[in-house]
Amino acid sequence: MEDELERRQIEQILELDDEELQIEEVEGLLESSDDDRDATGVASTDDFTFNTHLTSLHSYLGEVDDTRHRSAFWEGGAILNLPLFYLEGAVLFPEATLPLRVVQPIFVAAVNRAVAQADAPYTMGVVRVYRDSDDGPSRLAKIGTTAEIRQYRPVEDGTINVVTRGQQRFRLRRRWIDAEGVPCGEIQVIEEDVPFRTPRDAYAKLVPLGNLQSQQMLSLNASSHGGGNEENDLEANSEESFESELSQTERRIHQSAIGACYESDRMDESTSSDDDNKLSESDNQSGSQCLNDSSFIGSSPSNHEKQIRNAGLGNGTKSMAHKVAGPRSHFSCTVSKAFWPNWVYRMYDSYCLAQKAADMWKQIVGMPSMDGFVKKPDLLSFYIASKIPISEPTRQELLEIDGISYRLRREIELLERLDCIRCKICQTVIARRSDMLVMSSDGPLGAYVNAHGYVHEVMTFCKANGLALSGRTVKEYSWFPGYAWTIINCASCETHMGWLFTATNEKLKPKSFWGIRGCQVTDDMR
C-alpha cells in the first residue's frame, strides 16, 4: 500500500517536471501582498494546490532504496558503540526525518559501517557540531540522537544519499577514530520519563479554602469527644489511598512538595505573631499569582520546590491557615499534608501541558487537529521542538531537557514569545509568525540537504521583508517539486538568509514563497 502511494506521488513529481513554464520575473515578489491570507492571518488554502506530501519524499536525492529495516529500541541506560555522524546546521530529534548527502570520506565510512554492523544494524549516532565563534574550534554537543537509516543509495562519485529518522536521545560518553578512520562513540541511551497525569480524584479531595474554618471546627469538636484517633485513622487512610494511585515519578513530586511544607512548618514555629501577620499580607499578594500556572512555565526540576514555597504553598499557606483555622500543627496535618491545589498538579500534568501547547501550535501554524499528539505528550514535545522557528542553540537546549513536562513548559514559553523572525546579525525583522506557510507534511520547518552535503533547517513563509535576491534562478535540485529557487540575502547586512521559491508550473499555488534558514534567525522573537 505504501509502495503504491509513493509511486503515485512520484508520478505527480514527473508531471510537474513535464509541464514547466517560463519562470515569472521575481522583482515584484520582494514585497508580497496579503491577497492570499484569511482574516486570522494564516495563509489561505483556497488556492493551495501543492501536494505537501511530495516534499517529505526528498525526491531531489534521486532514487534511494528502502532498507526495509526497523531498529529495535534500546532500554534506557543501555551503553552502545556506534559510528558517529557530526551534524552542522541542524539538530535531530526523535521521530524527525533527516536527509543526508554524505560527501566527506570519514562519514561515508561511518554510514557504511552503520549499514553493515551486526550489533545495531542501520543505526548511527548523530551529534550536533558547532563553533562558539566564526573562527573558533569545532565543538560537539554532549546530547545526541540515534538515527535509523531508512533509505540508502551509493552514488557513482563515491558519495551516499540516505534518509534517516531520529530514534532515541543519548549521552555521548567518549569518542574516537578507529583504525579504519571511522568516527565512533560510546553512547548511553537516555531513559525517558513517562507522561505525568494528575491522580484520579485529586481535586475532589482537596478542601476549599472557604471551608477551612468549618472543617477545623468539626475536627476540634471530634477531638473534644474522643474522636481524635478515628480522625487520624481516616487521614492516614486517605493519604495512603492517594499515594497508592501515584507512579514513582508522581509520588516523588508529591512528597517533595510535602517536604517543602514541613520544612516551612518548622521554620514558622519559631516566628512571632508579627511575622505571621506579615506573611498573611504577602499571601494576599501571592495568592493571585498562584491561580495562574503560566508563571511556572519554563521552570526547571531544580527549582520547583522553591517556586511552590514562593507561590504560597509554603510559608504563605501556613500563615493563612494560622489566621483562619487556629492551631497551625493541626491544619498542617489534616489539610496541607493531603492534596495540593489544581494549579500545582497542572504544573506537572503532561497532558494538560500538551493540550495547551497543541492549541498554541495550531493557532500559530494553522495545522489541523493535534488530538493524536495530545494523547502522546512525549512525541508532541519532540515534534514542536523540531519544528518551532528558533535558533540552533535553543533547539539543542530543548533536546537536552530531561522530562516531558519541563520540555513542554519551555516550548510554551517560546511559543508565547513567538511573534517576529529576525536576522541574527542585524536584528532586521524578516517575517512574522502569521506569515508562516506549511509546504511540507512534516510541518512549517524541515531539514533539507543541498548538493554539497550541507544540511539546512528551513522554515517557510508566504510573506517576507528586508530581503534581496542574489544570483540566477535555478530549477535543478529543488527541495520543493515544481519550484525553482533563488538565493536571498538580508538587505541590511547581506547575510545569506535562504531562498525564494517560484512556481515553474501554472497549476501550482502558491506562486511563490520564502524559505528562511533556521541558523540565521535570532532568539529575540518579540
Explain briefly what this protein structure is.
With about 525 residues, the chain is α+β, with helices and mostly antiparallel strands.
Task: Explain the overall architecture.
The structure is a single chain. By secondary structure, the protein is α+β, with helices and mostly antiparallel strands. Helix content is 36%, strand content 22%. The protein has helices spanning 2-18, 105-116, 212-224, 228-244, 248-269, 273-290, 304-313, 315-325, 328-336, 342-348, 350-365, 371-374, 377-387, 392-400, 404-417, and strands at 65-66, 79-87, 97-102, 123-131, 138-140, 143-154, 160-177, 183-189, 420-422, 429-432, 445-449, 455-461, 467-474, 483-490, 496-503, 512-517. Strands 11-12-16-15-14-13 form a six-stranded antiparallel beta sheet, with no helix packed on it. Strands 2-4-6-7-8 form a five-stranded mixed barrel. Strand 6 and strand 7 form a beta hairpin. Helix 5 (248-269) packs antiparallel against helix 9 (328-336) and helix 11 (350-365) packs parallel to helix 13 (377-387). The longest helix has 22 residues, at 248-269. The chain is globular, with a radius of gyration of 28 Å. It starts with a helix and ends in a 9-residue tail after the last strand.
